[in-house]
Amino acid sequence: MTDVFSSSSEAVLQRPVSVSFLRTDSHAGNLVQLYQIAETCHFITNNQFKKVALQFPDEFLPDAVRVSVEIEKETNAKTFILGDTSYGSCCVDEVAAEHVRADCIVHYGPSCLSPCRRLPLLYVFGKRPIDVQQCAAAFKELYPDCQSHVIILYDVTYSHAIGDLRTLLCEIYPNVVVSLLKTDHSCGAKLVQDSCVDSDHIESQDDRVIFKFGRQFSVKAGQSVDNYSMFYIGQEGLTLTNFMMTWNHCAFSSFNPETHTGRVESVKINKALMKRYYAIERAKDASVVGILVGTLGVANYLTIIEQLKDIIHKAGKKSYMFAMGKINVPKLANFLEIDIYVLVACPENSLLDSSEFYKPVVTPFEMELACNKHREWTGEYVTDFRDLLPGGSSHVGFPEPDQSAIGEETTDVSLITGALRTCSTTSSEIINGTSESSSLVPRNQTLTVANTNTAASFLSGRSWQGLEPKLGQTPVVKAVAGRRGIAIAYEEEGVGNKDASTPLQKS
């Protein structure tokens, strides 16, 4: 368990920092090639942008200043470096860019390719090294049958080598499908790629085209994605986990370009699904839900928040919204009255491992499973919250209240505690549009009773309610000079203390 209320300064000083592969090269010429500055300058100049926000992940920050100088030298634009992103570095930080009134954003490094709606955007993934020959050899070893139906997925930082890999494989494997990176951005988004898959090989008149997580591929007519195996190129991480959770009926294999090894992914995904199902049962038992805003850039995030508020209220639960930037254990530990949190974020950051948190953190899909009785657990898993919205591929409407069932309560058995749980929402409350938040509720024509707020009742019942204000009891005094120095050794410390055996030594 992480130490929540304090951190070790020694651990911070000794913590290792992973250095990106881009730092291995210090020559300006290779820097221009690695960060594809020529293409970036072409994008800025053609669109006549004057203020450009450059968003770097933490591991790329050592090169940020040199990249910024090169871009300003080749264009007339003023650049601003966005180093500390509000949320995950894979998401485009449009809010930070708007603070400097930027005309566009250049996003460097790995990306979840979540759609954005505010500013023009350019993706520069970089070029992680990969041995295409070894990757093809690992593929042939994992799939000895040349008639295997395989879909090739990859981390965006290896997109520059996928064209060469396709050339090596597709003549031998006629049923191999190579995915294509594609963006869904209303303001215009471009990808800087030297070698990508030709779209002519993706789309066919008879094939069914699938577009998900910024990847587009096609499956043959009469077949589904479940009939294919998945081959992923990249390191184990959130991207692979997201793919495996979404297409959990497919057999997955992967190739790690750093270790030059291929492997069959194990059945751990089933254990992960069971953990997520446990979190759904916790959400069913919860009465107070905290909605965590984990993105301000992904399209339709406000719409899903309003939808979550609505279904949580209809399920008889209370909801509170929290916007706190990057989520960690100490932040969420401050709100003990919250039974469970639901995180609204991009598909990759939604799958948060909450094992160290005091309260579970679930996804919008899991919260809908807990609140909407019309949505059943079928093994399907949705990580993109846009699929849950009206018109989405996985949208399920909330059941309309029944006039004949006013006042009735439905019960269920908790699989965690074994106790009966009751849905506390009455149909009359939803039909009439009344809210539980009002302090006075009429019971009949002549009598009115007070209905206390749920949060206020919880706080009044807590054993510790904060420091006593003692209003009017504390004397007013003038400001006086405080201690000087640092906490470990104030200048006046030890003066006049008879018990002090040795004076403070200055180093």
Automatic annotation (TrEMBL):
Statement: the UniProt record of this protein carries the keyword Transmembrane helix: no
Signal sequence residues: none
Keywords for the protein's UniProt record, in alphabetical order: Iron, Iron-sulfur, Metal-binding
A GO term, aspect molecular function: iron-sulfur cluster binding
The protein's required cofactors: [4Fe-4S] cluster
Gene3D superfamilies membership: Diphthamide synthesis DPH1/DPH2 domain 1 (3.40.50.11840), Diphthamide synthesis DPH1/DPH2 domain 3 (3.40.50.11860)
Keyword Coiled coil carried by entry: no
InterPro entries: DHP2, DPH1/DPH2, DPH1/DPH2_1, DPH1/DPH2_3
Gene Ontology annotations of biological process type: protein histidyl modification to diphthamide
Pfam families, per the entry: Diphthamide_syn
Chain coiled-coil ranges: none
Pathway(s) the chain acts in: Protein modification; peptidyl-diphthamide biosynthesis
Annotated family: Belongs to the DPH1/DPH2 family. DPH2 subfamily.
Role noted for this protein: Required for the first step of diphthamide biosynthesis, a post-translational modification of histidine which occurs in elongation factor 2. DPH1 and DPH2 transfer a 3-amino-3-carboxypropyl (ACP) group from S-adenosyl-L-methionine (SAM) to a histidine residue, the reaction is assisted by a reduction system comprising DPH3 and a NADH-dependent reductase. Facilitates the reduction of the catalytic iron-sulfur cluster found in the DPH1 subunit.
Protein's name in the database: 2-(3-amino-3-carboxypropyl)histidine synthase subunit 2
Organism: Cyprinus carpio (Common carp)
Gene: dph2
